[in-house]
Write a structure and sequence with these properties.
Serine Threonine Protein Phosphatase 5, Tetratricopeptide repeat, 68% helix, five-stranded antiparallel β-sheet, alpha+beta, 384 residues, globular, 17 helices, SH3 type barrels
């Protein structure tokens, strides 16, 4: 009788070839494409090998077929490459968790897999973009990383001027140039995204580019232009919503509209803070008071409700900090889901308590600041 161990060994030898071949084929055709169909629904294509990917066209080969197929690049949401090395994947996870130093290190380390021939060249483009985003996250606190972040984005554009990740690249550049206070370059990067979005009929890119321009104007303290830019952005989002199909696109555009409408109010507050004019303060307060009545969508939005409380509270703060404190506290307690506005409420709450003075109020102000840093560490208000 032949020993079972020998039979098992023989089977392993016989099957090793087919199994390795199957594993190789699975790896070669392991890419996954997510895209929006004509009705705006998310669809996926799996078991393919992406040959080329730009925001105009994504071409791929399906298993068992010699000819290439194509998808409109402007409708592609994401591409997951099957040959992504583990170190790249850990870098992406670290980036999503805002562990920026680890993300930058892992993503840089992943590039070696291309030189070794284990991964296709797509990795160089993707690693550069995501490392740029990681360094931009670090640069918010350590400006020395800005130049390297810009270098990564520029490297990605050289590798693929029409990258599927074009929006991430341009918005990353906007953030970097804004940190450097190079406003002309920041606006140029944002306008480039808007132009491409219009050219390829990608509404979200167009809207995100417009938002970046408005934000840059506000940071540049061009208040009148910023208010106008946010107003135009709201109108653009509303126009796009009329034609948008599918829950994902419609939900995202509606969110962009609400955020722009809220930002328009805060740009009016910034103008009033700069001018000190009673007229400007009255206009800012009137804007926030009337905001919920502009649409049914606004009336049902937690973010709008919290922004209205914060906005009115900020208009009251200098003359009546006690009344302002009540507004900020209500925003914090009643609209916990509106994270951006709750963080702002905590920041302003601390300011109101400091204005009121007294040992108890100072302690409460310190607690509000502690809560802000603990629960909203990534917020711009926690960094002030």
């Amino acid at each position: 009788m032949i020993p079972r161990t020998l039979v098992a060994a023989a089977l392993i030898v016989l099957l090793a070839g087919p199994l390795q071949a199957q594993e190789k084929e699975d790896r070669e055709y392991g890419d996954l494409i997510h895209f929006l169909d004509d009705e705006g629904n998310i669809q996926k294509i799996k078991g393919v090998r992406v040959a080329n990917a730009t925001y105009e066209k994504v071409s791929y080969v399906s298993r068992g077929r010699a000819s290439r197929s194509e998808k409109d690049g402007s409708r592609v949401l994401s591409i997951a490459y099957g040959d992504a090395p583990r170190v790249y994947q850990t870098g992406i996870v670290a980036l999503s968790r805002e562990m920026y130093q680890k993300a930058a290190e892992d993503l840089e380390g992943s590039k070696a897999a291309v030189d070794a021939g284990f991964v296709r060249p797509w990795l160089l483009e993707y690693a550069a973009v995501n490392k740029g985003l990681a360094l931009t996250g670090l640069a918010a606190r350590e400006p020395l990383h800005i130049a390297d972040a810009i270098k990564q984005f520029e490297e990605a554009l050289k590798l693929n001027p029409k990258s599927i990740l074009f929006a991430d690249i341009q918005l990353g550049l906007v953030q970097c140039y804004s940190l450097q206070k190079k406003w002309d370059k920041a606006k140029a990067a944002a306008e480039a995204l808007t132009a491409v979005g219009e050219a390829i009929k990608q509404p979200l890119w167009k809207i995100r580019g417009q938002r970046a321009v408005a934000d840059a104007l506000l940071k540049q303290e061009e208040y009148i232009q910023a208010v106008s830019a946010f107003e135009s952005l709201v109108s653009s989002a509303q126009r796009e919503l009329k034609w948008a199909k599918g829950d994902l696109l419609r939900t995202t555009l509606a969110k962009q509209e609400i955020e722009a409408a809220v930002a328009q109010g805060w740009s009016k507050v910034a103008m009033a803070e700069a001018s000190g004019s009673a007229s400007d303060w009255n206009k800012a307060r009137a804007y926030f008071e009337g905001l919920p009545n502009r649409s049914d969508t606004y009336r049902g939005s937690d973010e709008v409700a919290a922004a209205v409380l914060n906005g009115i509270g900020r208009c009251l703060l200098d003359k009546d900090p006690r009344a302002a404190l009540l507004k900020f506290t209500e925003a914090e307690v009643s609209h916990f889901g509106a994270r951006t506005e709750v963080a702002r409420a905590l920041y302003l709450k601390a300011k109101a308590l400091q204005k009121l003075g007294g040992t108890r109020n100072r302690r409460m102000a310190e607690q509000a600041q502690k809560d802000l840093r603990e629960f909203y560490p990534g917020s711009e208000w926690a960094r002030q």
